[in-house]
Structure formats: structure tokens, C-alpha cells
Specification:
The chain has helices at 5-14, 41-44, 47-50, 53-58, 60-74, 81-91, 106-110, 168-180, 198-205, 219-223, 233-247; strands spanning 18-22, 97-100, 115-117, 120-127, 133-135, 155-159, 183-187, 209-214, 227-230. The chain has 250 residues and is of the alpha/beta class. It has two domains: 1-30 and 78-119 and 165-250, 3-Layer(aba) Sandwich (Rossmann fold); 33-76 and 121-159, 2-Layer Sandwich (SIR2/SIRT2 'Small Domain'). It binds nicotinamide-adenine-dinucleotide (NAD).
């Protein structure tokens, strides 16, 4: 694995079908903490107590309070140059779809129009009984876990908690897109959360060129990455897009 930024830009400018897979790291420069690492959310709030569907079912009000605190933290966060760079690639016809593990809606806010939300979207709530969705009104949060206005079932943030399955559409569509792309850009993901971490491997098996943007090497870097762009994605991705535009003379 020795390809450079220039080779990555060339692969992108020659590509017919580009897909991005993003994780918590793409939103780090927007001020949203990642979940792992020394300052990760799970250090302060253990996964078993706050991140699982069982925890929600056992004590919804306690876990709801955690989600409210988290929402307060991210309420005013805005897309950063990494989100805008991916949206710009779509604008120059070099991005089919962004598959994101994030639940923060920032790719859409940056202008990406084709986004597969692998783990849901924290701006919505879903009823555990009738599955009806409702917006999560961050300015009028209830102190206790809210109930569905239609059926009085328990509402929960519309995110995939540990112990829940990935929504069918996201699972199958993301897998199909990963197998079809000829370049995949993997941004800010630790390769620890499955099945999302399988997507770059599926792309590589079908011959895709893998560009990885991360602050530090991951299992992807060691096993399948063709071009590793080390550093904050808010710096490396805009640099990459500038080079792609130069290659395409636009
Ligand atoms: P992770 O926390 O396991 O890993 C984050 C990765 O990003 C690490 O490899 C880290 O080195 C890298 N990174 C950190 N800052 C970066 C930067 N500025 N530029 C480039 N890389 C950077 O995240 P994950 O792999 O996405 O898995 C955690 C799960 O938690 C995900 O499934 C996601 O659903 C969820 N999550 C979402 C958000 C969000 O919506 N913003 C935030 C935290 C966690």
C-alpha cells in the first residue's frame, strides 16, 4: 500500500462509480465526539448501560436522559469541510452514494443528496409498537421517555442501538452499492463496528480501489487500503477534491 494523494485523485477522476463509507471521525471536526478512544462517549457512558436496546427497554427514562444530553451536545453542530468535500464530489459526478454510520444528518446538511443511513438518524424518534416515526424536537424535549401520539407505545431515538438489527433497506442497498463501486472512500471509521465494517472488504473483493482517510491506521489500512490519507478528514478530503478537479480540468 503505497499510493499517494495524487494516485488517489487519479483513481477518482477515472472512476465510474464512487461510494463513500463514513464513520464518527468525519464529524469529529464538527465538534461531535467519536464513540471510542480515550475521549470517546462510551468511556463516560458504558455501552451496556446506555447503548443497548435492552438498556432502553429496562430503564427508558435513564437512557432517554443520556440521549437528551447527547442531543444538546450536537444540536448546534454544523457540517465541516470533510462533509462539504464529499458533497462536492457528488456535484462533479464523482460520488454515487454516501453510506454513513453517523446519525447526525450532517452529510445531508452539507448537500449530499444520496445518503444511506446505516444506523438511523437521531433527529427522529420511532415508536417501538407501531413503528411510526416522528421528528425529535430538540427544543421541546420531554424529561421522561416520550410516548407515541397514535398508539401510546414507547418512542425511542430512531437509531440502531446495540442488540438491534440494521434496517433492511440500508443493509441491502449499502451492500449492493459497495459491490458495484470501483472506488470506495472510507472516512473516519475504526473498522470495529460490524456489519458496516464489512463494506470496504466487499468492495475490495470486487476489485475497488480503496482510499482511506483517518487520523490513524486501522485494520483497513493494514489489510485492504490502497491509498491512506493520514490526518483530519477536514483537511485531507478538500485537498483530494482540489486535485480531482485539477485532473478533470474543472
Ligand atoms: P469510532 O468512534 O469507532 O471511530 C472513529 C474513527 O475516526 C477512528 O478510527 C479515528 O481514528 C477516526 N477519526 C477521528 N477523528 C477523525 C478526523 N477528524 N478525521 C479522520 N478520522 C478521524 O467510529 P465508528 O467507526 O463510526 O463507529 C462508532 C459508531 O458510533 C458508529 O456506528 C456510529 O453510528 C456511531 N457514532 C455516530 C456519531 C455521529 O453521528 N456523529 C458519533 C459517534 C458515534
Amino acid at each position: 500500500m503505497a499510493a499517494t494523494l495524487e494516485q488517489a485523485a487519479r483513481a477518482l477522476s477515472d472512476a465510474k462509480n464512487v461510494v463513500a463509507v463514513t464513520g464518527a471521525g468525519v464529524s469529529e471536526e464538527s465538534g461531535i465526539p467519536t464513540f471510542r478512544g480515550d475521549h470517546g462517549i462510551w468511556v463516560k457512558y458504558p455501552i451496556e448501560e446506555f447503548g443497548t436496546i435492552d438498556a432502553y427497554l429496562n430503564d427508558a427514562n435513564r437512557v432517554w436522559a443520556f440521549w437528551c444530553e447527547l442531543s444538546e451536545l450536537v444540536k448546534d453542530c454544523r457540517p465541516n469541510p470533510a462533509h462539504y468535500a464529499l458533497a462536492e464530489l457528488e456535484g462533479i459526478d464523482r460520488m454515487e452514494t454516501v453510506i454513513t454510520q453517523n446519525v447526525d444528518n450532517l452529510h445531508q446538511e452539507a448537500g449530499s443528496t444520496s445518503v444511506i443511513e446505516y444506523h438511523g438518524n437521531a433527529r427522529h424518534l420511532v415508536c417501538l409498537q407501531c413503528r411510526k416515526r416522528a421528528p425529535f424536537d430538540l427544543d421541546n424535549r420531554t424529561k421522561l421517555a416520550p410516548k407515541c401520539v397514535e398508539c401510546d407505545g414507547l418512542l425511542k431515538p430512531d437509531v440502531v442501538m446495540f442488540g438491534e438489527t440494521i434496517p433492511n433497506y440500508a443493509l441491502f442497498e449499502a451492500s449492493a452499492r459497495a459491490q458495484k463501486c470501483d472506488v470506495m472512500i472510507v472516512v473516519g471509521t475504526s473498522a470495529q463496528v460490524f456489519p458496516a465494517a464489512e463494506l470496504p472488504f466487499a468492495a475490495k473483493e470486487r476489485g475497488a480501489f480503496i482510499i482511506e482517510c483517518n487520523r490513524e491506521p486501522t485494520d483497513f489500512t493494514r489489510l485492504i487500503t490502497d491509498a491512506f490519507l493520514e490526518g483530519p478528514a477536514g483537511e485531507t478530503l478538500p485537498e483530494l477534491v482540489t486535485l480531482v478537479k485539477a485532473e478533470l480540468a474543472i
